[in-house]
Specification:
alpha/beta; six-stranded mixed beta sheet; four-stranded antiparallel beta sheet; 9 helices; 10 strands; globular
């Protein structure tokens, strides 16, 4: 589903990514773990076509997106990829139900179909009773759940999540990871950037460890969870 080769990205004199290569197979859950400032979010934005690498290539679902123009890239992104960002980008003037509907209506799907699916997605993320509330009336955890529902409206083949557990209570963290598992079981490929390495490795098939802009380790998630370096650096174990 994703093949990234030799990705480089700098902001001025700051080199954020240095020769990153990775692959995500169709149907997998893959996690990218690393400390704050490792380059995880920048990498996710490039893989999600929201930013362009200075050098290197990205293929998504067999399509080389590196050379697509802005209009073609926007259309490709809307058809293939769902995003859940650290900052939810919910529209404050619309209700939870309307926020979930918006991607479907922008995609010019029949209104009745969009509204039916919005109801299903709100049920999936546990917000049926909050459908008429605006984002400002929801807790941080509920806003994260709403962002997840909205990301799934367009039935993406690929779901990208940037720190979905950030700022959430342990109970809500378990709930959102439960939803991620369910989404994956429904056939969506998932790429997850997460500082909570324990949860990220528990949910993933495979994982990459990103340190200062380079891939330091990769492999089966269970193997990395038992790796002594990973345990010391990210799991708080001796």
């Amino acid at each position: 589903m994703i093949k990234a080769t030799d990705i480089h990205k700098s902001y001025g004199a700051l080199e954020v990514l240095r020769g990153v290569s990775l692959e995500v197979s169709r149907g997998e859950v893959v996690s990218i773990v690393g400390a704050s400032g490792a380059g995880k979010t920048t990498l996710l934005q490039i893989l999600g076509t929201l930013s362009k690498a200075d050098r290197g290539s990205v293929e998504i679902d067999g399509q080389d997106v590196s050379s697509l123009g802005d209009r073609a890239l926007s259309r490709f992104r809307n058809e293939k990829i769902g995003f859940v960002f650290q900052f939810h980008h919910l529209l404050p003037e619309f209700t939870a139900f309307e926020n979930v509907c918006i991607p479907g209506l922008i995609g010019r799907r029949p209104k009745a179909e969009v509204e039916r699916r919005a109801g299903e997605l709100l049920a999936l993320v546990g917000l049926t009773q909050r459908r008429d509330h605006k984002p400002g009336e929801l807790s941080g955890g509920e806003q994260q759940m709403l962002a997840m529902g909205r990301a799934l409206m367009a039935k993406p083949k690929l779901l990208l999540l940037d720190e979905p557990s950030m700022g959430l209570s342990p109970l809500l963290v378990k709930e959102i990871f439960k939803i991620i598992r369910q989404v994956n079981r429904n056939g969506v490929t998932v790429l997850l950037v997460e500082q909570n390495a324990k949860m990220a490795l528990e949910i993933a098939n495979r994982a990459y460890v990103l340190e200062t802009g380079t891939i330091k380790m990769e492999g089966e998630a269970t193997e990395l969870a038992n790796n002594i370096e990973v345990r010391k650096a990210y799991l708080g174990c001796e």
